[in-house]
Write the structure tokens for this entry.
Amino acid sequence: MEQCISLDKENFYSKPRATSIPTARSFGTDITNSVIPQPDIDELDSSDPQKLGYYARDIYNYLHSIESNTLPSCDYMKRQTDISEKMRAILIDWLIEVHHKFKLVPETLFLTVNILDRYLDKHIIERNRLQLLGVGAMLIACKYEEIYAPEIRDFVYITDKAYSKEEIIAIEFEILKVLEFNVTVVSSYRFMERYARLVSLEDRGFHLARYLIELALVEYKMLRYNASLLAASAIYLTHKILKKPNAWPEVLVSNSRYRDLDLKNCARDLCMVLQGAEKCSMQSVRKKFSLPMYGGVSKIQICSVINSGRNKLY
């Protein structure tokens, strides 16, 4: 049964309420009313060689500083003469389905879309080669991210032999040449992982935030936002949907460089994408996140109580 969650227009972008400070007792210590400090996640992760708690803040500060280096232009479609935003959306929707069927790691999908957009930003392409471009982008991403990458014959098969092995190899080389072999990028998924970890987000919330950033992959207009802002807005909106008491706590402010007001526009656009997901013709992301392994988060229906007029969310 689908769960319906309302978004209150007056509280959607409200600032966190100030917490009251317990009044000191005349003697002794009031243990029951004392504020329990939030554990330092990076300190807890210091003994984990995969999380690198000692270096996490420095690593993500660096990633914040370089994320704009590999962003495609948000208006490149104006220069394309034979393809449209709708064609891009259809292609990415199909790539998401392929990614899921091949059981690839999340980063492969985000890198695939980044390679696709950066190539289209620099090179004009005919519509009959757009799917070939998508296949080539995913092949490169698989080789970069996967331990056991699919073989070229697998990509020939998924295109129903529309393209040959030689054509896929040729487009792979062309993509790498156009991008000057720069395929190391910072994705919204990596930032989302970081923010979710900092607030100890439960599995359901993590899947919902991931659902939001994967929906954003299909939407051309979301290219206007950089990876960290998109991830931060996804966590913020997730907290709002799940009715967390503080949608953007101080630990995220200090680790993301964003305050809650900085997330307003991106969170609004994400909310609009989420509310339109059910009626959208591209359904791969929604079907994927309806599965039990993702907590069925795409079945959550956002029932907006926002009135029309100046107070409308979007």
Notes: Confidence is low (pLDDT under 50) at residues 9-37, 304-314.
